[in-house]
Amino acid sequence: MKRGPGGRVFRIYFAQMLSGVVGMTNERKDKEVSSSAAEPEITTGPAGECDIEPGEVVEEELIGGAPVRKKGIYLLPNALTTASLFSGFYAIVSAAGGVFDNAAIAIFVSMILDGLDGRVARMTNTQSKFGEEYDSLADMVAFGVAPGFVAFFWSLNGLDKIGWAITFIYVAGTALRLARFNTQIGSVDKKYFVGLPSPAAAACVAGLVWCFHSFEPAAWLTFLTIVVVGGSGVLMVSNVLYHSFKDLDLRGRVPFAAILLVVLILVVVALDPATVLFTGFLVYALSGPVRALFRGKTRRSAKVGK
Q1: Distance (Å, whole) CA 109 – CA 76
Q2: Prediction pTM value
Q3: What domains are there in the chain, each with its CATH number?
């Protein structure tokens, strides 16, 4: 059967259209291959998980403006944080065994170690997100759970529900204080703390137990414990401002008499460390509300004068 010229034209047009479609398909495939080659390769295991060693910590750090993934943790600052956590745990164990003076001392040791880990990390340039989170969790145990349990086993357990309610106020106040501190980093004046710092609150509770651990149970002592433990928990979540002393320049030169003052302070603390530390931190805890009252009176007087 003969075919007319129209059929030939149709075959030519169809062949050209088919070749165009094939060309477009090949071009799209080339683009997909090139785009997939530009993406970072992710290695997956047999279960489709990322290729990360079990139990390993991976963090992203900005180096030169670019995110870089690094494995592992810094040993020195995290070792100090672990020692602080251990001291807090030891305080709980000692309080459960009735050795309350050792429990109180262990909390003060945690304070020293907690102050060292951050400074060591900054001095050695070993700050990390893991270290910040680990330090916050260790503080919760050393300055929240441990002082609460020490005070409860020492005096508050005889009050039944009131005793553990006061203890919970303190522990919950510590948790809220730490959470608020972590969210306010960089947005609050470094010269002040908003609320009583958790180490200072723990020092008030531990100092109380250390001072009066040898006293016989009495109503006035139980009342004092309720005031100190419950008041510390409330002050931690308050908006009262406390001096942070971060504006002190410890690297600059000072008069020679300053070292004599340091010697005098060490001698006074050595004479009766329990009483001196408890009194010092109690005065610091009361300084915030007292300053807030005077500030409020000054503002009211200024408004009346206008």
Answers
A1: 17
A2: 0.77
A3: 69-305 (1.20.120.1760)
